[in-house]
Amino acid sequence: MDARFTPEQDEIRRTLRELLHKRCGPVELRAALDTPAGHDPALWTALADQLGLPGLALPEAYGGVGCSVTELALACEETGRALAPSPLLATAVLTAPLILALGADAQRADLLPRIASGTLTAALAVPGPALTTALALTGHDPHGTWAGGGRAGGVQARRTDDGWRLYGEAGQILDGHSAGLLLVAAHTGGFARSRVLLFLVQADAAGLTRVRQTALDATRPQARVQLRDVQAELLGCEGDDVLAPLARLGDTAAVCLAAEAVGAADRVLERTVEYVGQREQFGRPVGSFQAVKHRLADAYVQVQAARSAAYYAAWAGVAAEGEQAGGLALAQALGALRGAAAEGIQLHGGIGFTWEHDTHLYFKRAAGDELLFGPVHRLRAWAADAAHLFEEAGR
């Protein structure tokens, strides 16, 4: 294993960091959060036109760059540093891989080039509380009951003379209010032949209602989607197994989320170190006190360990499957981000608790990601169960 980054990978990181430094500072970030979309469309266009970010991991045949999950994770690390609100996670990480894996030739030829160019954004509509189960991050449901349907909630699909119709609702959909395309997981077939299928729903479909929800982490806009007799297009074929591709997607998504969390943790720790070096107490910088040094050193070790875990998971995702490296890396990274953000709030003193300061945004990112993709102890428990760790230890 060669742990060094290639010149191309270093260039992706450098260019993206420079662009976000210019276009996504604290003022621009807060302004974007107050818009109806929850992100800056001009920044998204720049990320697509200058860096090809939406199509970074898509094949060149569909207008993508043709890179691997490693490059996508490095890009996510930089967007995490800036807490950049964008449709990158919803579009490029959660939705595009499913269209690539399951879509018919015509569907891929129509949708993926537009996604790669940044002109089409997409969102995966899975009921928020069930997202980790659907992605097999905290458990696995071989029957797909997490999709709900009917009286169980979620979304139900029915075949009619003119195609498929969807009914129901789902909440906590990342960028679901602004996406041009929804990829909806729906339950169909009743109890005897129940199964989960994925459907394409256009943003302007009749009967579709989308409302932005108030979320703990404003940098990850979420929406509630209601479908009342909405016409939908089946992704791929009716006989396709969607649960296995969703489970494979979970490991890739976990790698990208872990890289995001590492970037955010590294940045909030940098800001805290800078602040304690400037703030004086008793005639000397606060950062010169041994107790403060110890706390920051512990946070630094956690961040570096999380970075190593995220990089290894990105490499393992390319080299092998089934190691559960993504879930473990995500657990490590979320813990490091929560710890670094908590230290940042405390060591910033009085201003660390104020709404005007940016430190609380990093803490909310950690807490919000745990609500959506965790919590940490369940991520670790499922990875241990999947690896039969406790079974082997008990022999």
UniProtKB/TrEMBL annotation:
Coiled coil spans: none
Residues covered by the Acyl-CoA dehydrogenase/oxidase N-terminal domain: 6-118
Domain Acyl-CoA dehydrogenase/oxidase C-terminal: 255-377
Name recorded for this polypeptide: Acyl-CoA dehydrogenase family protein
Pfam families attached to this UniProt entry: Acyl-CoA_dh_1, Acyl-CoA_dh_N
SUPFAM superfamilies: Acyl-CoA dehydrogenase C-terminal domain-like, Acyl-CoA dehydrogenase NM domain-like
The keyword Nucleotide-binding is assigned to this record: no
